[in-house]
Design brief:
about 240 residues; alpha+beta; six-stranded mixed β-sheet; four-stranded antiparallel β-sheet
Length: about 240
């Protein structure tokens, strides 16, 4: 009696394993009193003047490598007493530019705009020291792709270039968390602070694409190797 072996289960295993991971999507309401500098329990190096704000909005990231974040943000806000210094977009500007120092374990940030939606990626904990500050005066805010490091506060704005192209942010492989918040200070200069007079909310819709981790591709390879062995045995029989 000949026992027939089917390779269908191995095909199913390979195809299932090779399928790309589902994109992570979500939406967050970001009150403009949220301080991006408080991400992950970070503490201010210098006690803030004008209010230190509240903890930023957190997103727990699905694991993966080669992940790409895209954001579509809307909303309006004011950043001065009596409703002055307003912006009708998460791009800003509220007033002038931004030149904020790093604080605690997070970097500072400079830009030609202010009052914008900002972000920062973190791993399981805070960096041992603050990474280099990002200067979007030099980089510009009209980039199509950008790759911040863990702990670097970066510009998000409305998530599009001036020409309407969706901006892509490369997620560090070690990142497990993303935080949305505001980078604020006295006239958006110096040490972070002055969150008490902020009024408004930005709505951030985000997508994080993902590719399988190396262990998943290893499983695919194992399934295909088994498939090849079974095929050879069938031919020999």
């Amino acid at each position: 009696m000949t026992i027939r072996r089917t390779v269908a289960p191995f095909f199913a295993l390979a195809l299932l394993s090779a399928a790309p991971l589902a994109a992570q999507t979500g939406s967050r309401a970001v009150d403009t009193k949220t301080s991006v500098f408080l991400a992950g329990g970070n503490a201010y190096t210098v006690a803030p003047t004008g209010g230190g704000g509240v903890a930023p909005v957190a997103v727990n990231l699905d694991p993966g490598t080669g992940r790409i974040l895209t954001v579509s943000a809307t909303g309006a806000a004011t950043f001065c007493p009596n409703g002055l210094c307003g912006t009708t977009s998460p791009d800003g500007p509220s007033i002038g530019g931004t030149a904020l120092n790093g604080t605690g374990s997070l970097s500072g940030i400079s830009a030609g705009t202010s009052g914008f939606l900002a972000g920062v990626f973190l791993g399981a904990g805070l960096p041992g020291s603050a990474p280099a500050s990002l200067n979007f005066n030099a980089i510009g805010t009209d980039f199509t792709t950008f790759a911040p490091l863990i702990g670097q506060v970066f510009f998000i704005g409305n998530g599009q270039t001036s020409g309407g192209v969706t901006q892509q942010f490369f997620v560090p492989d070690a990142a497990t968390r993303l935080f949305f918040g505001i980078a604020d200070g006295g006239s958006f200069q110096g040490n972070p602070g002055f969150y008490d007079d902020n009024v408004g909310t930005y709505n951030a819709n985000f997508t994080i694409s993902a590719v399988p981790e190396p262990s998943t591709w290893l499983l695919v390879g194992s399934g295909l190797a088994t498939l090849a062995v079974v095929a050879r045995r069938r031919r020999a029989t």
